[in-house]
Each structure stands twice: as C-alpha cells, then as structure tokens.
Amino acid sequence: MATPMTQRPHDLVVWGATGVVGKLICEHLARSYTGKLRWAMAGRSQERLAAVRQEMSKTNPACKDVPILCGDVGDQASVDAVVKVSRVVLSTTGPYALMGTPVVDACVRMRTHYCDLTGELPWVRKMHRRYHEEATRSQVKIVNSCGFDSVPSDIGTLLIADYMIKHLGKPLASVELLNGQAYGFVSKGTLSSIYGAVINVPKEEKAANNDPYCLNPPNSKRGPDKPDGFWISYSKAAQAWTAPFIMGPYNTRVVRRTNALLGNFYGDGFRYSERQRVPGPIVGALVSSLFIIFGLLALFPPLKPVWKNLLPRLGGKPTEDTMKNGFWKMQLIGQSAPDSSGKATTVVAQLSDKRDAGYNSTARMILETGLCLLEDDKLKQAGLATGGCLTPASSCGLMLADRLNHADFTFKISTVDGKPI
Ligand SMILES: NC(=O)c1ccc[n+]([C@@H]2O[C@H](COP(=O)([O-])OP(=O)(O)OC[C@H]3O[C@@H](n4cnc5c(N)ncnc54)[C@H](OP(=O)(O)O)[C@@H]3O)[C@@H](O)[C@H]2O)c1
C-alpha cells in the first residue's frame, strides 16, 4: 500500500545525483531551494553521494543535512524503497532503455510523480504501452523528456496555441520550430541514448519509429503531418534556409502527443515541424548530407559495435567555458488558418537561455518541471491531466512557462504579424 503523498518525508528526490546532470540539478537546488523544499539525493553509491553533498555544502552550508538514499536499478526492492518516500522523483539514470524501467515501474506502483530526460523513442513507446492506463487510473504523472528535449518544443508550441486560440480567437494551422544558435556540448549520456534510440532499435519497432504520430495514444486522431524531411528547405514564414534538426524526429512526436492528450486543443488539422536554421543553401546542403550519411551508416548492422563505442566518446562534459558562455536560442512561428479574406495571422515566440542546452539548462528544466508537479491542486484546477504517461505541456501547461521565466529562461510571445507585443 503506497503512503499518501502528503505523508512522505521528501518532496523531491534526484535519482542519479552523482551523474553530470544530476549534480547540476543538486546545484540549482542548493542555490535556490534548500531550506524551502524537502529534497534528497539518490544513487547507487553512498560514498559518491556523500562527496556530492559535501560539494553542495560549499554552495549552501544547509546542504550538509540533505538526506542520502541508496538504490541500484538492478535491485528493484532498493528502487522501491527510494521511490516510496518521495512525492516526485527526477530520474537522470540513462540510457533509459537500459536503466530507466525499474524507476518508472516503482513510481507507478508507489504513486510517485516522475520526470526524466529521455529522447529514446522505442523505450518511451514501451513505457506508454505498459503504464499509461495504470498511471491514469492511479493518478500518477509519468512525464518523459523534461530537458532540452522536449520542453522548449512542447511548452513553446503550447504558448503559441494558447495565444492564437484563446487570446486572438483564431484557429491554429501550424507551428514551425527553428533551432537557432547555441553554445555548449552534447553530453555523453545523450549520445549513448542516441545509440539506443536510432541504432540499436528492435526490429519490430523500426517501422513505428517512422510514423509521425507514433507517440499518440491508441485510437487518438491523427493529423496531416508526413514523415520528417531530410533535405534543405526554405521557410517562407521565417525567410530562412533550414536543414534537419537532430532532435526533430523525437520532439515533433512529443508535441503531437500533447495535442492528442489535450483533446486536440491545437486543432485536428494542426501541423508541426522542427528544423535547424542555417546561413544559406550550401551550408544547409552540407548539414543535410551529413544527416543522410549518418542515417545510412546507422542502419548498416556491421557498424553497430563501432557506433556503440564511438558515440559516447564524442560527447563532452561541462567546462568552465561552456558553464560561463553557454546559451541557446529558438524561434517558433505559428500560423492561423486563413480568414475569409485569405489572410493568415502569424504569432512568433522567442525561447532562449543563457546556459548551455545539454547540461545546465536541461538540469534547470527538469527541476522546474518536477517542482511544477508538486502543485497537484493548481494543475488540477487548470484542467490538466491528473495522471498517465504525459508530456511536459500536457502535465504542467503554461504554469511551467511561468516557472521557467522566473528561473531566468525566456519563453515569450514576441510578435503578432511582425508587430512586437
Ligand atoms: N537533451 C536532453 O534532454 C538531455 C540532456 C542531457 C542528458 N540527457 C539524458 O540524461 C541522462 C543522464 O545524462 P548524464 O550525462 O548526467 O549521465 P551520467 O553522467 O552518466 O549519469 C548517470 C547516472 O546514473 C547513475 N547510475 C548508473 N548506473 C546505475 C545503477 N545501476 N543504479 C542506479 N544509478 C545508476 C550514475 O551513478 P554512478 O555515479 O554511481 O555511476 C549517475 O548518477 C542520459 O540518458 C542522457 O541522454 C538528456
């Protein structure tokens, strides 16, 4: 029998606190929330966790009392023991296809809300199939992809939809996300996850991976989107050349699931795409070619062991330079359906952060998502889902955009038909 949420000793547990992202989450907690929130660190090594706590105590001396909880994903009983004493678990032990399931399983059984940083399509689909119904019934929120993948895509689209539909009273036809400039490393963990999501995909999952609506709940409405394009294109709305964006094939499916979970709030004919902004067609053709070459090599089975070793080595760790100078910028362009005179309205949102996307920004995004889930009553009042395998936008709505804006991100509507608002 699960202990009622209100009687649990910890509001939030960072599972994987000794990892690169886990430590950064602890740092944000140490700086901004220690003393205001009952939080704990979890992982498999008491000694390594104690070292992290010692480090955090330098940032905030009150951290010396932060509880340490030990559990190993290879031992389900130890995972259960950690999960049942928390209201929300932030899981950073990836690759999730290898290490994520015991934590989700425990959260569903113990009725503990859950957030992670996965971008692994086959694993996420497996979690939906296995746990969506039970989590819905038990009112547990299992929220995948709460980092750079896929918070900006998902919350940015909700911002535009809300403005277009509720504020301007117009039907939304499409949103196009353009990833802009960024500075920072892709993490080793992320590259290991790409191996699991793109290269080491079980045979029976390959066809589903290509379906643009493969994350939608069964029997939900589909829309007009086609499989992702892998060549350059010119965006009329942005007046810019674009190439494929590496996380587009994942994030687009998350946004479409959100639309389905929100009862098709964005519209039945809603179209969504994600692209990388490039300086011109030549650079665009180069980026697209690299994408296609990687795709072909990734599908060539004899190269599987090479990728398995190579990909994690290509990742970097946060450095003093990326911690100081890291940033990312994105633009989302929403268009309404044309009115009776044939004119469409364009709403643009600017999203950015002055932290590197892969580590520092991601750590803050998952933390703010977890903190948002603690506000169960407010989320319910806002009409959001009380349980299920959810997305950042379908679980937290625009409350997450507000939290992110308070945490130094920019998630704002900037122009309507070219006029600043
Ligand atoms: N864009 C995004 O949304 C984004 C960005 C960054 C990362 N990520 C994802 O986040 C995940 C974490 O990335 P990272 O760079 O922080 O990875 P990492 O540094 O390798 O950290 C992994 C964590 O998992 C723990 N762990 C490993 N095996 C375990 C076990 N058997 N039982 C319990 N804990 C175990 C590790 O503990 P030990 O210290 O004991 O080994 C460590 O705390 C990855 O899956 C990555 O893809 C996503």
UniProtKB/TrEMBL annotation:
Residues 13-142 form the Saccharopine dehydrogenase NADP binding domain. It holds the Pfam family Sacchrp_dh_NADP. The keyword Cytoplasm does not apply. GO terms for biological process: glycolipid biosynthetic process. The chain crosses the membrane at residues 282-303. GO terms for cellular component: lipid droplet; mitochondrion; plasma membrane. InterPro entries: NAD(P)-bd_dom_sf, Saccharopine_DH-like_oxidrdct, Sacchrp_dh_NADP-bd. Keywords: Membrane, Transmembrane, Transmembrane helix. Gene3D superfamilies: NAD(P)-binding Rossmann-like Domain. Belongs to the saccharopine dehydrogenase family. PANTHER family: SACCHAROPINE DEHYDROGENASE-LIKE OXIDOREDUCTASE. This is Saccharopine dehydrogenase NADP binding domain-containing protein.
